[in-house]
Amino acid sequence: MNVAVVPDILKERWGNSPDHFYAKPQRLYLSVLWWYVHFAWGGDEKSTYALLVSPNMNTDVIQGIVERPGRLGTYVEVMRKILFYYGCLKPEVIRSRQNGRQQDVFRSVMTLNTARLKTTDPDFYRHGPKSYAYDLFLELGFTKYDFTQKKRSSA
Q: Based on the number of CB atoms within 10 Å of its own CB, is 117 exposed (0-12), middle (13-18) or buried (19 or more)?
């Protein structure tokens, strides 16, 4: 698939861009997408699909979540909860932050997570990775009102 199908998709999206074919290091696009879906897994196909098609998700989020392993690897449950809460942020809240540059909000959360994981174990939080991830957003100045009511209550 990486040899026969993905190049056609890349060409359709980017044209004959050297950066996407040979000038930059190649990515295994299917494995990146697999990991992205794995991190977005919400327990069933319906909730996972809802998160993946959230208006907050884009290629910057895919890159930020898949290409940022920690020193000791990737903490899958933390990544799932970060994606969940980011997907639950109201799009207008994201647009109003950082001059509407959506990737900056996500990058800020991921940077804080990387720094915090050096001294904090999410399993020691009262509700584990769920409250750990939520606290990352609170520390960046988000409030419970910045999240969609329906999704916030189902976390």
A: middle
Check if the beta carbon of residue 112 is closer than 8 Å to that of residue 134. Answer: no
The tokens describing 136, both together, are 């990352």
**pTM score, whole prediction:** 0.78
Q: Which DSSP state fits 147?
A: B
Q: What gap in Å lies between CA 94 and CA 106, rounded to an integer?
A: 9
Whole-angstrom Cα distance, residue 57 to residue 82? 12
CB atoms within 10 A of CB 46: 9
| pLDDT at 79 (0 to 100) | 92
Asked if residues 104 and 97 have their Cβ atoms less than 8 Å apart, the reply is: yes
- Low-confidence spans in the chain with pLDDT less than 50: 100, 152-154
Retrieve residue 126's tokens. Answer: 């009262």
Report the C-alpha gap between 60 and 27 in whole angstroms.
Answer: 15
Helix then strand then coil, % of the chain, to nearest 5: 65, 5, 30
Name the token pair of 150.
């329906």
Q: Which two tokens stand for residue 148?
A: 């969609």
Average pLDDT in the chain: 82
